[in-house]
Amino acid sequence: MAAPRAGPGDAAAAALDELSRNLSYWAPGAGNGSLSGEWYRRNQIHLFGALLAILGNLVISISLNIQKYSHVQLAQREPPRPYFKSVLWWAGALLMAVGETGNFAAYGFAPVTLVAPLGCLSVTGSAIISVMFLKENLRASDILGMTLAIAGAYLLVNFAPNITQTVSARRVQYYFVGWQFLIYVIFEILIFCILLYFHKRKGMKHIVILLTLVALLASLTVISVKAVSGMITFSVMDKMQLTYPIFYVMFIIMIASCVFQVKFLNQATKLYTMTTVVPVNHIFFTTSAIIAGIVFYQEFFGAAFLTIFIYLFGCFLSFLGVFLVTRNREKEHLQQSFIDFGNIPGKQMLDKIQPDSNGLSYGTLPDGSDSTKSQSGEKKEV
């Protein structure tokens, strides 16, 4: 007698039952994408990489606030001192290097699709520390954004690909010449060249164009960073991999992509406020990194649809959290200064002259004309 076929209702019930087992802490069973006991034991290296990424991002948050505090202190001194002569600024720079090293090492233990989205903790952590360290205001949107980012990070750790693959030189070579990656690189180069043409030849400097260029380079960065970090980790724990040419190819790609990535990111920060650049860049960078991890390292290969859906929902929560934390933050600190000329008998003049936001001195009128001299050498009248 033939066994009855499982209907759609049975499949849905089985998926929900699997999900409930996944979310049962220390419950017996294999689990998948959870903190169950068996999953914990099988993914200790995976969790160690996640812990390195979290700690690295928190250290970066501390370093940013220390450097910001040193700039505030130096600005209050007479005469002003350059920032590179401040011990406090160098302490922040040292912590920044430590945090970035932690992030770099994390790629050697955890998947790209987990380490990259955890960058949201750097932004939210900086907001928390700035409240305590720099006495900045804590807004309701900050609390909501931090809560969403932490919830998103929890889902990411639980439902990111729990494969722990050793990154050897031979494996990287195999992925490097695979048809998936070759098609991906050709497609990416075409988009990059088109955007670069509009940026350089047509003079288009929209934030989407600039940060898309950054994101395209970032995809190569995360691929090469994981390859270099993974091969170093494999060399320390098992067998030397640094004698293979692919290690140095990936190292060169990592350095070159980082340099050009910083170049385009600096252009974006010069043209737009940080409250605009930070959330958009986080979303673009994370999306690009996730796609690179899926294409090159095949990190979601064989994953269940429900696991992928909850993982993407965790990414969405982290994106929303970063947006809420950074929203309108600079506007609270920027007080538009002006010089009050008062009333001059017999003459009607602009009574308030704003400082030039793009220059180093006061005296620029709203239309960009010279406020100090006219053709006759006197002040201009309206």
From TrEMBL:
<dbReference type="GO" id="GO:0016020">
    <property type="term" value="C:membrane"/>
</dbReference>
<feature type="transmembrane region" description="Helical">
    <location>
        <begin position="181"/>
        <end position="198"/>
    </location>
</feature>
<feature type="transmembrane region" description="Helical">
    <location>
        <begin position="303"/>
        <end position="325"/>
    </location>
</feature>
<feature type="transmembrane region" description="Helical">
    <location>
        <begin position="277"/>
        <end position="297"/>
    </location>
</feature>
<comment type="similarity">
    <text>Belongs to the NIPA family.</text>
</comment>
<keyword id="KW-0812">Transmembrane</keyword>
<feature type="region of interest" description="Disordered">
    <location>
        <begin position="353"/>
        <end position="382"/>
    </location>
</feature>
<protein>
    <submittedName>
        <fullName>NIPA like domain containing 2</fullName>
    </submittedName>
</protein>
<dbReference type="InterPro" id="IPR008521">
    <property type="entry name" value="Mg_trans_NIPA"/>
</dbReference>
<feature type="transmembrane region" description="Helical">
    <location>
        <begin position="87"/>
        <end position="109"/>
    </location>
</feature>
<dbReference type="Pfam" id="PF05653">
    <property type="entry name" value="Mg_trans_NIPA"/>
</dbReference>
<keyword id="KW-0472">Membrane</keyword>
<dbReference type="GO" id="GO:0015095">
    <property type="term" value="F:magnesium ion transmembrane transporter activity"/>
</dbReference>
<feature type="transmembrane region" description="Helical">
    <location>
        <begin position="210"/>
        <end position="234"/>
    </location>
</feature>
<feature type="transmembrane region" description="Helical">
    <location>
        <begin position="115"/>
        <end position="134"/>
    </location>
</feature>
<feature type="transmembrane region" description="Helical">
    <location>
        <begin position="246"/>
        <end position="265"/>
    </location>
</feature>
<keyword id="KW-1133">Transmembrane helix</keyword>
<dbReference type="InterPro" id="IPR037185">
    <property type="entry name" value="EmrE-like"/>
</dbReference>
<feature type="transmembrane region" description="Helical">
    <location>
        <begin position="143"/>
        <end position="161"/>
    </location>
</feature>
<feature type="transmembrane region" description="Helical">
    <location>
        <begin position="45"/>
        <end position="66"/>
    </location>
</feature>
